[in-house]
Design goal:
The complex is a heterodimer of chains A (327) and B (324).
Chain A (H helix, E strand, L loop, with lengths): L7 H26 L14 H9 L6 E5 L3 H7 L3 H9 L22 E5 L5 H14 L6 E6 L6 H12 L4 E7 L2 E2 L2 E2 L9 H6 L5 E5 L3 H16 L5 E6 L17 H9 L2 H11 L5 H24 L20
Parallel strand pairs in A: 1-2, 1-3, 3-4, 4-8, 7-8
Antiparallel strand pairs in A: 5-6
Helix pairs in contact in A: 1-2, 1-3, 1-10, 1-11, 2-3, 2-8, 4-11, 5-6
Chain B lengths: L1 E3 H15 L3 E5 L15 H5 L4 E3 L4 H13 L3 E8 H4 L3 H8 L2 H4 L9 E6 L14 H5 L5 E3 L4 H6 L1 H6 L4 E6 L6 E3 L12 E4 L4 E5 L4 H13 L4 E5 L2 E3 L3 H11 L2 E8 L4 H13 L8 E5 L8 H7 L3 H11 L4
Parallel strand pairs in B: 2-3, 2-4, 4-5, 5-7, 6-7, 10-11, 10-13, 13-14
Antiparallel strand pairs in B: 1-8, 6-12, 9-11
Helix pairs in contact in B: 3-5, 10-14, 11-12
The chains are: A alpha/beta (327), B alpha/beta (324).
The complex binds thiamine diphosphate.
């Protein structure tokens, strides 16, 4: 068990954020069963250390681009659990006004550019955000999350090449959970060493154990510093695993149950709280108290979503084009 | 025996795979996962990984590979998960599949079948719900099919595979669980529209996922004393003008129901053909019931408001009848 060298308060904030994601999503799954949340719901359970580790290493002014499996990223980035839950309910008070749902969380205030459900769709967009910053001499990093499945898309290759060619300030963060829906990495990539693929574009790379939140944090920090200091893009592979099915529609028949169980033993929340306990930073009561506080936040978010309002149907055509357009 | 649309499609593919060694299926998660809409469930075990090919997330490449394989003597069935994702492969479909015969002066054929789901209704929001059939129906060189009944789900694939040119089959996601009796006469052509219900006062012209809604509307109209005929286009390119016009000449009124957005829709094309070919026989201007011009929103009530619905079809039909 490696020593946690972070100060206690910070370490506990990492744990808290992972728990907030976990409990929010467990509740979402339940609410899906109850018909309160609909559409596609992709849970991040098991992968919490990625978003938490990486986003704690970023600065407030940085840009975030994420996928349809983005509840955790949105939450850690500072979108309130209430606004996320309301969005999943389809309520007006949701962070996308109820128009987006689970797959399309957005928040301009926290520079959270979604919530993209076209695999690979966020990659060029992130590069463009980096281009805008470079052209305006703004010192900012754009962080782009995507799954390893996206690396088979042509747009991944086109984006990496351009970002490297133009030395754009983008941190590409691949959350490698080994499966793209039912397709295992080894059955979709001729080169399964993802860093080797990215390195072909002359981009520096790092790979990290995504079950270890402190390792993710340290590595992301290093990578982000490189990007921030003008060295161009960086590719970070976070090796992780999703404990749940791909979506609520997935019968999950393509993985060995023992494989799932083995990964669960290394679960990011469980392993980190064990480490904190071993180092005397946390005891069981402390953990339970923390969990109870998170539980209250979840309940409050659900109440908020329940109490939220339905946008009037008369507003259907709003926000298709800008109300300020004056042709 | 009743079977579902999904099972009918599966039976059609199973038959093709079992009887023609040139046929193979490829696409994302068609094998081990069993198909994202479970259409190819069990195929991997039955036909093996050579013929049931899971592809990486590479729509442009594997659709293009289907074109190449078709050129090279195979009869590929390529499955694209949804029409929204097919946009990543649009270049290969439009610039290669559709154009190769013509560009080569008739030397090359692309006997390829591309299947994809389309349509809204499951709160999947703006990147999973669109009806872009008309984008493909716009392009010369491809045939576009929209099976909307169990019999067509069972029957359309075989003639599509026999077609020397590329064929796109649109399966509306809302139809997969629909069940019906599969009668013995399911074998069909892929060139004509069908009258699904005879009527004398107004023609309701539709296709795909809107057919069940339109049939329901016709029932409600009958209860209100209006005799509606329902025309199922089945084939979106080339359009069977003859059947459409014959129906309109009989009823003298038409409502076109189309889940695509109104501007530049297939409904617009049909309406134009009616103007061109039956203008003087019309008793009222053609009405259209289309999707509202908004990316499909997530919230249920807004999604429903954005789409054609039975009550909208009924009121459009009453409007052309001069009743409200
Ligand atoms: C262009 C495109 N093709 C297919 C899909 C359907 N799809 C959604 S998620 C997914 C798997 C993606 O896997 P990965 O990128 O590894 O991310 P993960 O879901 O594992 O987080 C697929 C095939 C899609 N959304 N977009």
């Amino acid at each position: 068990m490696n020593e946690v060298s972070l100060d206690r308060e910070f370490a506990l904030s990492l744990l808290t954020d992972m728990l907030r994601i976990r409990r929010m999503e467990e509740k979402s799954a339940e609410l899906y069963g109850a018909g309160k949340i609909r559409g596609f719901l992709h849970l991040y359970i098991g992968e919490e250390a990625c978003a938490v580790g990486v986003l704690h290493a970023m600065a407030e002014e940085d840009n975030i681009v994420a996928t349809y499996r983005e509840h955790g990223h949105a939450l850690v980035r500072g979108i309130s659990m209430k606004a996320i839950m309301a969005e999943m309910f389809g309520k007006k008070e949701g962070c996308s006004g109820g128009r987006g749902g689970s797959m399309h969380l957005f928040d301009a205030k926290s520079r959270f550019y979604g919530g993209n459900a076209i695999v690979g769709g966020g990659l060029p967009l992130a590069m463009g955000l980096g281009l805008a910053d470079k052209l305006q001499n703004i010192s900012r990093v754009t962080i782009c999350f995507f799954g390893e499945g996206a690396m088979a898309e042509g747009v991944f290759h086109e984006t990496m090449n351009l970002a490297a060619l133009w030395r754009l300030p983008v941190l590409f963060c691949c959350e490698n959970n080994l499966y793209a829906m039912g397709t295992a990495l080894s059955r979709s990539e001729s080169q399964t060493d993802l860093c080797a693929k990215a390195a072909a574009f002359n981009v520096p790379t790092l790979s990290v154990d995504g079950m270890d939140v402190t390792a993710v944090y340290e590595t992301a920090k290093l990578a982000a510093e490189q990007v921030r200091s003008g060295h161009g893009p960086y590719f970070l592979e976070v090796r992780t695993y999703r404990f749940r099915a791909h979506s609520m529609f997935d019968p999950d028949l393509y993985r060995d149950k023992t494989e799932i169980e083995d990964w669960k033993k290394r679960g990011p929340i469980h392993s980190f709280s064990q480490r904190l306990k071993a180092q005397g930073m946390l005891n069981e009561e402390g953990f339970l108290a923390l969990d109870a506080r998170v539980g209250e936040e979840v309940s409050a978010a659900v109440d908020y979503a329940e109490a939220g309002s339905w946008e009037p149907v008369e507003d259907l055509l709003q926000d298709v084009v800008s109300p300020e357009a004056n042709p | 025996m009743k079977i579902s649309y999904r099972e009918a499609m599966r039976e059609a593919m199973r038959e093709a795979l079992a009887t023609d060694p040139r046929v193979f299926l490829m696409g994302e998660d068609v094998g081990r996962y069993g198909g994202s809409y479970a259409v190819s469930k069990g195929f991997l075990e039955e036909f093996g990984p050579e013929r049931i090919r899971d592809t990486p997330l590479s729509e442009l490449a594997f659709v293009g590979a289907g074109i190449g394989a078709a050129l090279g003597g195979m009869r590929p069935i390529v499955e694209v998960m949804t029409v929204n994702f097919s946009l990543l492969a649009l270049d290969q479909i439009v610039n290669s599949a559709a154009a190769l015969r013509h560009m080569s002066g008739g030397q090359f054929s692309v006997p390829l079948v591309i299947r994809m789901t389309t349509g809204a209704g499951r709160q999947l929001a703006a990147q999973h719900s669109h009806s872009l059939e008309n984008w493909y129906a716009h392009v010369p060189g491809i045939r576009v099919l929209a099976p909307a009944t169990i019999a067509d789900a069972r029957g359309m694939l075989a003639p599509a595979l026999a077609d020397p040119d590329p064929v796109i089959i649109f399966e509306h996601a809302q139809l997969y669980n629909m069940e019906d009796e599969l009668r013995n006469d399911w074998q069909c052509d892929i060139g004509t529209a069908r009258v699904r219900r005879e009527g004398s006062q107004v023609s309701l012209i539709t296709y795909g996922g809107s057919l069940p809604k339109t049939m329901q509307a016709a029932t409600e109209l009958a209860e209100a004393g209006i005799s509606a005929e329902v025309v199922d286009l089945r084939v979106l390119r080339p359009l069977d003008s003859e059947t459409i016009i014959a129906s309109v000449q009989k009823t003298r009124r038409a409502v076109v129901v189309d889940e695509g957005w109104r501007s530049g829709s297939l409904a617009a094309e049909i309406s134009a053909r009616i103007m061109e070919q039956a203008f003087y026989e019309l008793d009222a201007p053609v009405e259209r019931v289309c999707s509202e011009e908004v990316p499909i929103p997530y919230a249920k009530h807004l999604e429903e408001a954005a789409l054609p619905q039975v009550f909208k079809i009924v009121s459009a039909a009453k409007a052309v009848m001069g009743k409200s």
